[in-house]
Amino acid sequence: MECMLNNRSCVCADESLLKDKALLREMLEKMMIARKFEEKVSELFGKGLMHGTTHLGIGEEAAGIGTATALAPDDYMLVTHRGHIPAIGKGCGVNGMMAEMMGKQTGVCHGRGGSMHMADLGKGVLGGNGIVGATAPLACGAAITLKLKGISDRISVAIFGDGASNQGAVHESMNLAAAMKLPVLFCLIDNNYGMSTPFAGAAKETNLTKRAIGYGIKSFECDGNDVLAVYETTREAREHVLRYGPCLLVEHTYRTSGHSKSDRGRYRSKEEIAGWEAVNPIVRFSNFLLDRGLFTGSEIERADKFSADTIESAAECAIAAPNPPIDGVLDYVYA
Ligand SMILES: Cc1ncc(C[n+]2csc(CCOP(=O)(O)OP(=O)(O)O)c2C)c(N)n1
Ligand SMILES: [Mg+2]
Predict the structure, then answer these.
(1) How confident is the model over 134-163, as pLDDT tens digits?
(2) Strand 184-190 to strand 247-252: parallel, antiparallel, or no bridges (unpaired)?
(3) How far does residue 331's CA lie from ligand 2's centre (Å)?
(4) Is residue 335 included in any domain, yes or no?
(5) Is residue 63 packed enough to be buried (19+ CB in 10 Å), middle (13-18) or exposed (0-12)?
(6) Which one of 134, 164, 230, 269 is at 20 to 30 Å from 335 when CA atoms are compared?
(7) What separation in Å is there between the alpha carbon of 297 and the centre of ligand 2?
(8) pLDDT number for residue 84
(9) What are the percentages of helix, strand and coil residues in the chain, rounded to 5?
């Protein structure tokens, strides 16, 4: 999938957003922290300090951070096997996440969850999931809880991928949510690949927004590499969910990292990846902030240094943290 984006401009329909410097800084720093988190995870895997596998989302920062930042703090969110970035966006602390990656007792799930099953209930993150498509029915369940409790100002978000969009569970969930008018935002992160399969090889109809038509729900779509567009579109979609019920939001992006730690990258060319690396969403947003005179070069540098220090310190703490005690191995385990 050839990249047609540029690395300078972002789209902002509501210019008043640009006056909220704290919000702009929050999204910039979260994207930088997310990128450095993923890079550090890759490094620590390489050194044998992390085990199993992990799915990095390098290149997808604008999608995960823009959406999670646009949610209310107590909205529920379910993330996929590639869930680190939206979790950071929703406010999960990177100290707990890094320790979780290393299976340490100080991890956000006391080391029992690891990369794919991180949850932080206090932040509304109900967990990652290794079952492709499983976030959708779980988000419906969380939305039913909201409905039964009479809570009308919060929503439940199912993040899932283009590959997952073909799963029966996702279709059933969209139908159920529509029929029951559940407050679910179906957030489809379209990175064009499910493992090594390009989406066009997995479905005849490649316009994913059309999926909403069959369930009688509205769809939204945005450039998932533009954090402002993602933020604004998510806000709009969230309002829609609160007023009218579920909707589908499709965010187009690309992962420049491999599918997982065991990806040899034989299904796409180096040129394709390089084209997308050149439109790094963090550089793009930084350029936009500079061009519009909203941030100075030294402010961008400070944000970069802050995020680098944050991740270095998270890694040092995680390395020094204790392993869970053997006699407590079944603590915090539900099943
Ligand atoms: C039910 C199920 N089928 C297959 C897999 C193996 N698998 C893991 S990730 C993945 C691709 C998912 O693609 P997508 O939904 O687009 O998410 P992305 O990896 O691109 O973020 C597959 C097939 C799985 N984990 N669960
Ligand atoms: Mg995908």
Answers:
(1) 999 999 999 999 999 999 999 999 999 999
(2) parallel
(3) 34
(4) no
(5) buried
(6) 164
(7) 34
(8) 98
(9) 50, 10, 40
Local confidence band at 63 (pLDDT 50, 70, 90 cut-offs): very high
Question: Locate tokens 């995020």: which residue?
Answer: 307
Is residue 240 one of the residues assigned to a domain?
yes
CA 305 to chain centroid:
23
Query: Which residues have any ligand 1 atom within 6 Å of their CB?
Result: 80-82, 130-132, 160-164, 191, 193-195, 259
Question: 303: closest CA among 18, 120, 32, 103?
Answer: 32
CATH number for position 256: 3.40.50.970
How far from the centroid of its chain's Cα atoms is residue 23's Cα? 18
Query: H helices within 181-328, ranges in order?
Result: 227-244, 270-277, 281-291, 297-320
The predicted model gives 317-324 an average pLDDT of 97
Tokens 């499709």 identify what position? 250
Q: Is residue 27 part of a domain?
A: no
Which two structure tokens, joined as six digits, stand for 281? 């969403």
Tens of pLDDT, residues 204-261: 999 999 999 999 999 999 999 999 999 999 999 999 999 999 999 999 999 999 999 8
User: Distance, CA 253 to ligand 2 centroid (Å)?
Assistant: 9
How many domains does the chain contain in total?
Answer: 1
Structure tokens at 179: 């029929």
Tokens 């492709």 map to which residue? 132
pLDDT tens-digit series, residues 66-90:
999 999 999 999 999 999 999 999 9
Q: If you take atom 3 of ligand 1, which residue's CA is the nearest one?
A: 132
Check the CA dihedral 92-98-100-106 and report its sign: negative
- Structural domain includes residue 8: no
Atom of ligand 1 at shortest distance to CA of 60?
A: 21
CA of 132 to the centre of ligand 1 (A): 5
